[in-house]
Amino acid sequence: MASLNMRAAILSISFLILALGLWEMATQPPEAQTGMTEYEMLMGGAEQESRVPPPSAVIKLAWAELSNPFYDAGANDKGIGIQLAYSVYRVLTGYLAAMAIALPVGFLIGMSPLMYKALNPYIQLLRPISPLAWMPLALFIIQDSDASAIFVIFICSIWPMLLNTAFGVANVRQDWVNVARTHELGPLRTAITVILPAAAPTILTGMRISIGIAWLVIVAAEMLVGGTGIGYYVWNEWNNLDLASVIFSILMIGVVGMLLDLALGKAQKLVEYKE
Amino acid sequence: MSKSFLEVDGLSKVYPDGQGGELTVFGDIRFALEKGEFVCIIGHSGCGKSTILNVLAGLDEASAGNVVMNGKEIKGPGLERGVVFQNYSLLPWKTTLNNIVFAVRARWPGWSKEKVKEHSERYLKMVGLDHALNRKPSQLSGGMRQRVSIARAFATQPELLLLDEPFGALDALTRGVIQDELVKIWEETRQTVFMITHDVDEAILLSDRIFLMSNGPNARIAESVKVNIPHPRARSTIFQNPAYHKTRDYLVDFLVNRSGSALPERDGSPKFIEPAKGVAQSKPASAETESESDTAARAVNA
Ligand SMILES: Nc1ncnc2c1ncn2[C@@H]1O[C@H](COP(=O)(O)OP(=O)(O)OP(=O)(O)O)[C@@H](O)[C@H]1O
Ligand SMILES: [Mg+2]
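^ thats the input. predicted complex w/ magnesium ion below
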């Protein structure tokens, strides 16, 4: 009997073929053109163009795009690789900035019940705000669309990291803290050699949630601010009624999101420990 | 008056009892330890043994009283006191070796990498774990973990070792093996040890003196029982010593019949008892003396 993985792979591929087949069939152009309806006449026969493209068309486009992902032919015609690179750059910049704040502040909140009590109301108030709601304020204050998008990423990825860090640090087993104490480690060395590794799995979980949210939000943010990035690209192709490109970029958003999550998953594995 | 190595003076611990009043777990605990002594403390569950040990370790604070070691009052934890916890408390993300290295480095920050490693390996070898240097604690059995924990405590060569039921979670077989190892390490290092146990046989095997604690609330260390059995001792032969049985009977009687009412001396220090005083024994266990004490033991039993 084939292994479970093998059977799962076969099943996966079958599903894919089935789905692509159904999609292809559903999007075939009508066999015979028996005159235009009144609506079609009004639309000037545009129906042909605006139909959802079949997978074969998307694959063909994907091939063309991916064989030259970094071409740059002006403001509205850049390769998919360039657009994705803009988005990834914004996500990572906002994300790293959030990390630089969330980890130390999370540590502080986790270590000090006083700070926890003092800051918790603000966190609870700010956390549920949709990150896009900050956009107008950011645009007004920062006066720069690129930096505003980065700020939105910053604000959306800070909360899971902050809360998980605080939670992880606050719940480090007292026994391990006692080990640090009986070995006379100072506060800094305790934080680095005992608390950080002990809380690392929880912190990484927060970081993984954050990167996922950041990637969700960047698409919407770029649709709003425009210019560059995968979110802008999707919106632009929609305005061009190039649905094959829209579908292709949707898939690329999924791929990059998956890769980001995979990377954080790997990092998580590195810091995991069994008790 | 010559001062002892460790002096505990009027220690007490009070908790709110939840109804507005106060609950004195133990009160006016007084005792002294001499350098190089191995002392076990036995008492019923909840009388406050762990609390006393944690105060000595500096991890907990007493409500009153003070502890003086080497003429200095103990405030907070310190490297001159090593602790072995019942649940091992190894850092699970570090390998066996690195758990020891961590402690040795904290103890001697100036040592070179090689020296730290070599020192750590030596102590792991003492507990028979030199084959498991690179395993994580989760890949070790309970007995092996406790060995690592013991190696860690001895490796930092503290002036006072505190052990809180180190073998409590182990099965009887493993417990016996590690007890023998502890005896061996202690014979080599002769460190001062203060240990909590619930096992009378374990206490006799290891201790020079055994503190008996009365039941709480308001528990006291009522008696200090001398174990008149010479070192080196071994688990397999100690039963043959008549002093062993005398001591054991005395301890069991205390725990079963007297722990509710026993009180220390008027001045608060534990009553000094020698249950096996004058019982025929003196030389360390060689083959000859073993058979001698064997005969004596039979004579006592007859
Ligand atoms: N936070 C607390 N509030 C109230 N009482 C407490 C608290 N912590 C411990 N106690 C009480 O202190 C007493 C002593 O606890 P301790 O752990 O020192 O006992 P022990 O002698 O080590 O017992 P065992 O042999 O079961 O380990 C217990 O009776 C416990 O109920
Ligand atoms: Mg206890």
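The pocket of adenosine-5'-triphosphate (ligand 1) is lined by residues B 15, 25, 43, 45-51, 216 (CB under 6 Å).
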